[in-house]
Amino acid sequence: MKSTQTTFYIVRHGETEWNLAKLLQGHSDSPLTEVGINQAKDLAKKLKSVSFDAVFASDLLRAKRTAEIIAQEKKIIIKTTAVLRERSFGRFEGKPREIFQKELQQYWEEYEKLLDEQKSQYKFPTEPDIESDEELMLRFIPFIREIAVAYAEKTVLIVTHGGVMRSFLVHLGYGTPSELSWGTVKNSGYIKLESDGTDFFLKEVTDVEKRQ
């Protein structure tokens, strides 16, 4: 019986100026640094032997540019979508992470006391515009399943963001929220998986720090 599995390479964008400055990005954007461009080029070399049938990227410039570099020699049109965007950080976008953590300290303490299975649903009470892990997955997973069905037996490149990938890895059972803390997926890190449109089978995880 012929396999109907779709193979996915899900990649985080290269380093950006705001990554370097430790500013929250979310739905806001900043350009790739020279390091970020080189990270994308290095990943392009690493994945050179992979024959992609389609490339999808977040519509934010940092992801789109990373996808362009990886797919440059493959002559594939990149399709962009807001569904693949990073978590929204609301009013904290463009601000230092320290301010985000300090202003919401009492809620962070509340979050840390939760059981791991409760953390994905947690919303900061005063910040409705900050997406929870659950909200991230409610837009990401249906999209991946849809692509798996549309591109059965094909190989697809997805360029997205660290927060999305971290939440997805937790969903897949690769690690708990405690083991996979925020910032756990490194720039140009990627995961390889297969899907039949329903289930996901993790094959490879690269440049992801997991706490023991």
From TrEMBL:
Keywords: Hydrolase. The active site is at H13 (tele-phosphohistidine intermediate), E86 (proton donor/acceptor). GO terms for biological process: negative regulation of glycolytic process; regulation of pentose-phosphate shunt. CDD domains: HP_PGM_like. Substrate binds at R12, H13, G14, E15, T16, E17, W18, N19, R62. It holds the Pfam family His_Phos_1. Gene3D superfamilies: Phosphoglycerate mutase-like. It comes from the Bacteria. The record marks H161 as: Transition state stabilizer. One of its GO terms (molecular function) is fructose-2,6-bisphosphate 2-phosphatase activity. GO terms for cellular component: cytosol. This is Phosphoglycerate mutase. It comes from Candidatus Roizmanbacteria bacterium RIFCSPHIGHO2_12_FULL_44_10.
